[in-house]
Design goal:
Elements lengths: L4 E3 L5 E3 L2 H10 L4 H14 L5 E3 H14 L4 H8 L9 E3 L5 E3 L2 H10 L4 H17 L4 E3 H16 L1 H14 L5 E6 L6 H12 L4 E3 H11 L20 H6 L5 H29 L3 E5 L17 E8 L3 H14 L5 H6 L1 H17 L4 E3 L3 H16 L7 H6 L1
Helix pairs in contact: 1-2, 3-4, 5-6, 5-9, 6-7, 7-8, 8-16, 9-16, 12-15
């Protein structure tokens, strides 16, 4: 239970929740990273307090917004929300009505491959257009048309078309299975978390966690290869122990493949459950091989998107592992650096297999650009399955 209490204007006490503050900051145009960081700082500042009034909380937020030199327009929206948050009710296809959410609209634009900055700017402009229509209630399809025309004018046919496809997918009810593979240190977890946020996918699964569960169930004496890292699994293969062979690329790959084969059972089980429940999921990990897609049970409703992340320069991969060791000590970066050659061997294998199976390879040098590329890749996989006609999607 949250310790800090916020007292609202009706003298009702409610717990301070970082997620609620983050959401309100998203609605005034902040990026997710900015909003979450600021909300975390506010929570930290309130740790020594038992309670705080709503007005005191607002002053703390405004002070921090100014201190962080956040865009003045955003600060103004937070200070005077009544001038900016005129409520527009959106009528959906089933007749239900909900308030227009700028944060949700922005995420839809990011799903089409726009950067966070461009998506925020676009959503604010489109929101002004909707306000100028002078309607209290606007059909969701009309908002779609306005958004499509804006994207067509500002960013061209490709991005506008991606929006049509994404909109059609969202209203289809079909599940999306995103598989993100790559060797240690390429940023799979970070990218998966951010992509999940932008796609609105709340279920995610790391193969590292699956491996830990299987380790708890199977003693090392019975299955030693499971109790090693992917890049040292070769050491536990019986044929290598018997002959005490020297390490080479093929031996490293054989060890990795043996461990991945064991994990594939758990991976398929998780994906099969998601398909059965018709829910979207992101699975990430070194054991997500390009060939895994062929082992997934056939399901005509699900859209499956495999992606391999990579870092194409060895010194950059080394820097990433060193940096990760500074922030997350349990990663034991020295062990990773010691086995950098083996990690590089596994990446080379995954990239070769990706090419053989026509799986997209995304180079992860810049996080925002990588996320944009992943989002575009996902929409490209959706494109053959959904309508490209704006009139059919928005007006039918």
């Amino acid at each position: 239970m949250a310790k800090t209490i916020v007292i609202n204007t009706e003298e009702m006490k409610t717990p301070f929740l970082r997620g609620i503050l983050t959401s309100s900051l998203l609605d005034i145009g902040m990026s997710f990273d900015q909003a979450y960081q600021l909300a975390s700082l506010i929570r930290q500042d309130l740790l020594d307090k038992n309670q705080v009034t709503t007005e005191e909380l607002r002053k703390k937020v405004i002070t921090l917004l100014n201190k962080k030199k956040i865009n003045e327009d955003i600060i103004e929206r937070y200070i005077a929300p009544a001038n900016f948050n005129s409520t527009i009710m959106v009528k959906n296809m089933c007749g239900g009505k909900t308030p227009f959410s700028r944060s949700q609209h922005r995420l839809g634009l990011e799903a089409c491959g726009l950067s966070s900055e461009k998506a925020i700017t676009s959503t604010e402009y489109i929101y002004e257009i909707l306000l100028n229509l002078g309607k209290d209630i606007i059909h969701s399809g009309e908002i779609g048309c306005v958004t499509y025309q804006y994207l067509l004018q500002e960013y061209g046919q490709e991005i506008a078309q991606y929006y049509v496809v994404w909109y059609d997918f969202l209203h289809s009810g079909r599940p999306l299975i995103v598989l993100i593979g790559g060797t240690a240190g390429v940023g799979k977890s970070t990218i998966a978390i951010e992509v999940g946020h932008r796609l609105g996918i709340v279920r995610s699964q790391s193969t590292d966690i699956l491996r830990e569960v299987m380790r708890m169930m199977t003693p090392a004496e019975l299955l030693p290869v499971l109790h090693s890292s992917s890049f040292t699994a070769w050491e536990q293969l019986p044929e290598n122990k018997a002959k005490k062979v020297a390490v080479n690329e093929q031996i490293v790959i054989n060890g990795y493949l043996r461990q991945a084969e064991i994990l594939s059972l758990a991976c398929k089980a998780v994906i099969s459950r998601a398909l059965e429940e018709r829910v979207s999921i992101i699975m990430e990990g070194v054991h997500v091989k390009p060939s895994l897609i062929k082992q997934i049970p056939t399901n005509n409703e699900a859209i499956i998107v495999p992606i391999i992340l990579s870092v194409l320069k060895s010194h950059k991969l080394k820097e990433r592992i060193e940096e990760r060791g500074k922030t997350v000590h349990s990663r034991r970066s020295q062990r990773y650096l010691k086995n950098l050659k083996q990690i590089w061997t596994i990446q080379s294998y995954l990239m070769d297999e990706a090419e053989n199976h026509h799986v997209p390879i995304v180079s992860n040098l810049d996080r925002e650009k990588t996320i944009q590329e992943v989002m575009k890749t996902i929409v490209q996989y959706l494109t053959p399955h959904f309508s490209h006609d704006p009139n059919t999607v928005f007006l039918s």
